[in-house]
Amino acid sequence: MQTSLGRKFGIDYPIFGFTPSEHVAAAISRAGGLGVLGCVRFNDAEELDAVLTWMDENTDGKPYGVDIVMPAKVPTEGTAVDLDKLIPAEHRAFVDRTLAELGVPPLSDDVEQASGVLGWLHSVARSHVDIALGHRISLIANALGSPPKDVIDLAHEKGVPVAALAGAVEHARRHVENGVDIVIAQGYEAGGHTGEVASMVLWPEIVDAVGDSASVLAAGGVGSGRQVAAALALGADGVWMGSYWLTAAEYKLGSAADGPSSIQRALLGATSSDTVRSRIYSGKPARLLKTKWTEAWSRPDAPSPLPMPLQNILVSEAHQRISAANDPEVVAMPVGQVVGRMNDIRPVADIMNELVTGYDQAVDRLNEAR
Ligand SMILES: Cc1cc2nc3c(=O)[nH]c(=O)nc-3n(C[C@H](O)[C@H](O)[C@H](O)COP(=O)(O)O)c2cc1C
Predict the structure, then answer these.
(1) Which neighbouring-strand residues pair with 334?
(2) DSSP state of 103
(3) Nearest-angstrom CA–CA distance, 64 and 37
(4) Quick one: which of 119, 107, 33, 37 has its CA closest to 70?
(5) Could you give phi then psi for residue 321, rounded to 5 degrees?
(6) Radius of gyration (Cα) for the chain, nearest Å?
(7) Whole-model pTM?
(8) Mind listing the pLDDT tens digit for each residue in 210-268?
(9) In testing the pocket of ligand 1, which one of 243, 245, 263, 291 has its CB within 8 Å of the most ligand atoms?
(10) How far, CA to CA in Å, does 281 sit from each of 72, 167, 286, 351?
(11) Ligand 1 pocket check for 38: Cβ under 6 Å
(12) Ligand 1 pocket, residue 217 CB under 6 Å
């Protein structure tokens, strides 16, 4: 399993793995793919710097990347407007009532309340870029649009290619016009922020539209070697996977104890029908695991989610409380439809091995079918 893009990055397999966990990201790189660390959770620049130093030291000299979130500029950013004041009381009351109904306790006194919005701010995402460029990174990816031109130029000056997610052909074209090197064509079935076109239709459409001027990675629904083979058959230069790593043994985010976290237990029991695309996570449509929390927001008495970044601020403490409550029935977690295939906890190296073996078997089957 190899493509010219994989060779360009010096990786064994053209498998790019997005994950919020540095342990998983490093393991993906060590296993021959390219681990990409999600930076949106880092409000503290020093913490990100320390984590990237850890990545430098724990990737066996193999390449890795970072993912930042630079949505369209928050209109009030840099002004004195207090975003908290823009959140209606009705919304706050609904969140409080729902958490009480679902038995989610308040945070204990020794836990610091998260500020919610910081990682989504341009100023913070720019600090992520500055810090990351001081490390041995091989890729900067951006969710929610092309990064600003000066960020792309800065990355290019340092020889770092830039990738951006696209859920529709026009987004892909815009990315390429803006100087993005790699378009991540992300289908409807993907976990996290996602558009309305399914991978089977979107991948070849984006390859046809921009494949001559940029590399294309296929994202959304990949969780087997057969699906990697399908992505390459449809013209992609590799795959970009997010959900599938959430049940990796190395994924320990938010769980202090050994063994699967409540989130992982919920994921293991879910089928491909157990996700929902909703604005309740951030204000923009994102695919989440369907749980009592997401169901509460679809009740007739629930208010409409607020626009980004207000919804993110509204639910920030709720997400912290839900995570601390450790109840698999009440989880706030992005995941794609591929969750139906995530049925055991395995080390990243085993997952990679399965992807490569499954790919080879799929190619053999196709060769036999010629
Ligand atoms: C838990 C989770 C968090 C995500 N957060 C981000 C993010 O911060 N930035 C980003 O570019 N993509 C994010 N994504 C999307 C992934 O990068 C990836 O495009 C997507 O998971 C691919 O589809 P799949 O879930 O079917 O593998 C997230 C996905 C998941 C499952």
Answers:
(1) 288
(2) T
(3) 8
(4) 119
(5) -65, -40
(6) 20
(7) 0.95
(8) 999 999 999 999 999 999 999 999 999 999 999 999 999 999 765 555 667 888 999 99
(9) 243
(10) 17, 18, 7, 28
(11) yes
(12) no
Other beta carbons within 10 angstroms of residue 302's beta carbon come to: 15
Determine if ligand 1 sits within 6 Å of the CB of residue 119: no
Residues of the chain with pLDDT below 70 are 71-81, 112-120, 253-259
Pocket lining: 222 vs ligand 1, CB cutoff 6 Å: yes
In the numeric block, which tokens belong to residue 78?
């840099």
Atom 7 (ligand 1) nearest CA: 38
Q: What are the structure tokens assigned to 146, written together?
A: 């092309």
Whether 39 contacts 66, CB under 8 Å: yes
Environment class of 225 (CB within 10 Å of its CB; exposed 0-12, middle 13-18, buried 19+): buried
- Is residue 336 lining ligand 1, measured as CB closer than 6 Å? yes
- Tokens 């009381």 belong to residue: 89
Ligand 1 atom closest to the CA of 337, numbered from 1: 26
